[in-house]
Amino acid sequence: MTNLVYKIAEKEDLIDIVSLLYKDDLGKNREAFNIPLPQSYLEAFENINNDPNQELIVVKFYEKQGFRASHEGMKLILPLTGKANDKG
Questions:
Q1: Are 71 and 78 in contact (CB under 8 A)?
Q2: Which of left, alpha, beta for 18 (phi over 0: left; psi -120 to 50: alpha)?
Q3: I want to staple 5 with a disulfide (CB 3.0 to 4.6 A). Which of 10, 18, 31, 60 is the partner?
Q4: HEC string of the chain?
Q5: Where are the domains of the chain?
């Protein structure tokens, strides 16, 4: 199952945003992705965030990883440890 979470961008999202821009074919030649981020990114974020005509939205992608629990693995491991036949 895939979950998309939409939210207003916060400063904490800025590293992920710049990372995505940097990984883009065009962005890799113009973005400066260093941690800590250059001050110019923080200033740009604040300028956009403080503009009442702008709204920065990020979408977080979560995928629930399913698995099947099984005791079959234990059946295989226990004989190797010599504890499969222990009574106690």
A1: no
A2: alpha
A3: 60
A4: CEEEEEEECCHHHHHHHHHHHHHCCCHHHCCCCCCCCCHHHHHHHHHHHHCCCCCCEEEEEEECCCCCCCCHHHHHHHHHHCCCCCCC
A5: 2-81
Q: Write out pLDDT tens, residues 10-60.
A: 999 999 888 888 887 877 777 777 788 889 989 999 999 999 999 989 988
Upper half-sphere CA count for residue 68 (Cβ side, 13 Å): 4
Q: Is the pTM of this model over 0.85?
A: no
Tokens of 62: 């979560």
